[in-house]
Design a protein that fits this description.
Layout: E1 4-6, E2 23-24, E3 32-34, E4 45-46, E5 70-75, H1 90-99, E6 104-106, E7 112-114, E8 117-122, E9 127-132, H2 146-158, E10 171-176, E11 179-183, H3 191-196, H4 205-210, E12 224-230, E13 234-239, E14 252-257, H5 261-269, E15 275-276, H6 284-288, E16 293-308, H7 318-326, H8 330-338, E17 342-344, H9 366-376, E18 385-389, H10 392-409, E19 413-417, H11 420-429, E20 434-440, H12 444-451, H13 468-479, H14 483-500, E21 503-516, E22 519-520, E23 536-537
Parallel strand pairs: 1-16, 3-20, 5-14, 5-15, 18-19, 18-20
Antiparallel strand pairs: 2-4, 6-7, 8-9, 9-11, 10-11, 12-13, 13-14, 15-21, 16-20, 16-21, 17-21, 22-23
Helix pairs in contact: 7-9, 8-10, 13-14
């Protein structure tokens, strides 16, 4: 078996109306902000859950695996909960995807696709009919019907940690046992995205009503059932043989909690685990050189940048903003800070979303940077600024930027280390010049609402962008339900933002995984979602 490194963006073939990505914050990316529906960097996630489609304990490395029927996964972070409505954490969403389904799930190309929903109709801009799959059984043997869907979506609305994903569902009515009507409060192009989120996973209505402890005994319709939770050590799952989309090939899945990165690497190399979720990037080259291990590195949706306060000089000068955006070697940033596990981004919006273009956005071109700087009319001696860096990765990013800007423009910048909590407060209030940060969104709409809409100034709009045209385009995007028209609005908005250049895009951070090469059907989308029911073991 030859070593493999897989790289690149997942094809994004769907409009922002339907994209329902997972927004994640793991220990490897502690400084990114996230868009609703998403999760802030300090905590966890916004992922679309629940796939449909079918798909072991390890031996040494990638030795013969054809008889295996179990899978051991190493993860850095233990979930705070196995419920669907009492957390919004990446670690919890991973597990919810195994035990639960929603009406929709996020597919490999990032589009929301029907799961427990058989089909749907957009009756009007505010009226939606959802027809449910029939014969779907919960883990306790009960059949899922419309009353369960209504109760589950209303539970999401009432649960503080996930209620943001219930805002778009409006009024929920039962038409018959297998049909639900949703009447939204105005056009909601993000509705399908929200219905992918684990907060809207479907639970038995009678158990919701009775106050069942879903953290002790999660009951869903998913491909796996939780059978044991050994706190601080592991979680054990067994296949749901009555799964509506076919019983999984792998019958037992164990999640082992291994906080230390090199220990996870050694466990995979020794055959003690089969797959690592959070790969230590300093070990990536070593794993690539192991013929029995496949290393996977794919660009995700975490958009990272140097954000700059547009309200303060010299950043209130668009030519200066474009000058610094043109003089930074982003490939060097990725190599130095991420050991190559990222993809260059020039656009002001993540180009993993459909309709996003880089037209008009500055790219790395030192001579062009000098032209922009000359056009700004500014003196290098008057343009020095401080860049806040809230962790070691961001500091490495800052060091590359510091060198590039000094060499190209003669502008001196300083790097200021700051703890995460202080960083978040300072940048939200606008009491800063520049900072290294990021934003992980669940959809293009969610991203632009959080990062660029003027209503988010004082919150996640750290650049303090305040432009009536940008706001109008974002509002238009929210209200545009037609797929083709929605994508056109995305493109129009992307071009407008690229011309304005309110920040300095750097890279999309990769999702990095490593696994025993005998594992077949491995999958992870750009939002970090994996559907383990698709996996099986084969011989090398």
């Amino acid at each position: 078996m030859t070593k493999k490194l897989m790289r690149g963006l997942v094809p994004a073939l769907v409009l922002s109306l339907a994209v329902g990505l997972f927004a994640g914050c793991s220990s490897s990316n502690n400084n990114s902000q996230s868009a609703a529906p998403a999760q802030s960097e300090a905590a966890g996630s916004d992922n679309s859950s629940s796939g449909g489609s079918s798909g072991g304990a390890a031996t040494s490395g990638g030795a013969a695996t054809s008889g295996k029927d179990s899978l051991i996964i190493a993860t850095a972070n233990e979930t705070p909960s196995v419920t669907t409505n009492l957390h919004n954490a990446v670690a919890g969403d991973y597990l919810n995807n195994m035990t639960h389904n929603g009406l929709f799930y996020t597919s490999d190309d990032l589009s929301p696709q029907p799961a427990l929903c058989e089909s749907y109709e957009i009756v009007s801009d505010t009226e939606w009919l959802f027809h449910l799959k029939q014969g779907v059984k919960f883990h306790n043997g009960e059949e899922m019907t419309a009353k369960d869907v209504k109760a589950s979506l209303e539970l999401c609305k009432e649960s503080p940690q996930v209620q943001q994903y219930g805002n778009s569902t409006g009024t929920i009515e039962i038409v018959d046992d297998y049909t639900i009507k949703i009447t939204t409060d105005g056009p909601q192009s993000g509705l399908l995205s929200d219905l992918c989120h684990h907060g809207n996973a479907i639970l038995p209505a009678d158990l919701i009503e009775s106050g069942h402890d879903f953290n002790k005994e999660p009951i869903g319709t998913g491909p796996y059932k939780l059978v044991a939770w050994n706190k601080g050590e592991s979680l054990e799952f067994e296949a749901n043989e009555d799964y509506w989309d076919g019983a999984p090939a792998i019958k037992k899945v164990v999640w082992k909690v291994i906080p230390e990165g090199s220990s996870r690497t050694m466990a995979l190399e020794a055959g003690e685990v089969d797959l690592i979720i959070e790969v230590e990037t300093t070990d990536l080259a070593r794993l690539q050189d192991n013929p029995d291990i496949t290393a996977f590195s794919e660009a995700g949706t975490s958009h990272n940048w140097m954000m700059i306060n547009n309200e303060k000089a010299p950043f209130d000068n668009v030519d200066f903003r474009r000058a610094i955006a043109s003089c930074i070697d982003k490939n060097a940033v990725i190599q130095v800070a991420l050991n190559g596990t990222g993809s260059v981004s020039d656009s002001m919006t993540p180009d993993c979303f459909p309709g996003v273009v880089s037209d008009g956005a500055p790219s790395y071109d030192v001579e062009k940077a000098k032209e922009y700087f000359a056009a700004s009319g500014l003196n290098p001696a008057d343009c020095g600024f401080a860049v806040i860096c809230s962790d070691d990765t961001k500091l490495r990013v800052g060091q590359v930027i510091q060198s590039c800007i000094k060499d190209a423009l003669g502008v001196d910048i300083t790097l200021e280390s700051m703890d995460l909590a202080t960083y978040l407060d300072v940048t939200a209030t606008g009491d800063y010049q520049a900072a290294i940060g990021g934003y992980t969104s669940s959809s293009l709409l969610a991203y632009v609402q959080g990062v660029y809409h003027s209503k988010s100034i004082g919150g996640s709009n750290k650049t303090r962008t305040n432009d009536a045209n940008i706001d109008a385009l974002i509002d238009k995007l929210q209200a545009t339900l037609d797929p083709e028209e929605n994508t056109k609005v995305v493109t129009e908005l992307a071009k407008a933002l690229n011309e304005q250049c309110p920040q300095v895009p750097l890279y999309l951070r990769n999702n990095v995984r490593a696994y025993n090469s005998g594992l077949q059907g491995f999958n992870v989308n750009a939002g970090g979602s994996t559907y383990y029911q698709r996996m099986s073991w084969g011989s090398n």
